[in-house]
């Protein structure tokens, strides 16, 4: 399957460069595009939700299955993805996590201004930090 089949079932699809798109994730309540989609020369379609949804959740939400992301000849599906150091362009990673960065920015500004932190603020910050960390890992942007 080409990435087009998947893209045609997603909302707010935006091409960021040839073979790369961002879109709203169908597997969670996604107000901002958190889903990166990449089409590779070997025919594979890469999918990553930067809010943390699993790939199978994303494809199932639009009525596809994991095998639809791979070309006819399938070999060692998950390993193929794991072995890839930087599956998505850094700019797309940042675009997908911009909202989380904003949450952290707002929290940081409030903290510096000496404003009190509610439990809800704190909980949302924990979620944002976790997502940013996961996104950086997925984008190959962390050291080690
Ligand atoms: Zn998601």
Q: Biggest sheet, in brief?
A: 4 strands, antiparallel
Helical fraction: 40-55%
The proportion of strand residues reads: 15-25%
Number of helices: 6
Average residue-wise pLDDT: 86
Q: What is the general shape? A: elongated
Order of helices and strands: HEEEEHHHHH
Bound molecules: zinc ion
User: Any idea what the radius of gyration is?
Assistant: 16 Å
Structure description:
The chain has one domain. The chain has a four-stranded antiparallel sheet with strand order 1-2-3-4, with helices on one face. The mean pLDDT is 86. It has helices at 3-7, 55-61, 77-82, 90-96, 98-112, 119-138, and strands at 11-17, 20-24, 35-39, 45-49. Strand 1 (11-17) and strand 2 (20-24) form a beta hairpin. The longest helix is centred in the last third of the chain and has 20 residues, at 119-138. Helix 5 (98-112) packs across helix 6. With 144 residues, it is α+β, with helices and mostly antiparallel strands. The structure holds zinc ion (ZN).
């Amino acid at each position: 399957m080409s990435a087009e089949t998947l893209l045609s079932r997603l909302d707010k699809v935006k091409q960021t460069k040839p073979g790369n798109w961002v879109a709203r994730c169908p597997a969670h309540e996604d107000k901002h595009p958190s889903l990166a989609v990449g089409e590779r020369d070997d025919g594979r379609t890469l999918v990553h939700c930067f809010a943390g949804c699993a790939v199978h959740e994303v494809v199932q939400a639009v009525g596809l299955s994991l095998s639809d992301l791979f070309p006819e000849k399938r070999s060692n599906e998950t390993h193929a993805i794991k072995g890839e150091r930087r599956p998505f362009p850094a700019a797309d990673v940042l675009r997908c996590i911009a909202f989380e960065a904003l949450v952290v920015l707002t929290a940081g500004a409030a903290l510096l201004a000496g404003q009190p932190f509610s439990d809800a603020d704190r909980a949302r910050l924990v979620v944002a930090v976790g997502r940013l960390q996961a996104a950086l890992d997925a984008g190959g942007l962390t050291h080690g």
